[in-house]
Amino acid sequence: MTNAQRRREFISGVLHFADASELHVREFVDVSSGIDRFKYSYHYMRAGHLVFRYDNAADITAREFATYPNHQPIGEVIQASRAPALREVLEEIAATLP
Question: What is the DSSP letter of 60?
Answer without folding.
Answer: G
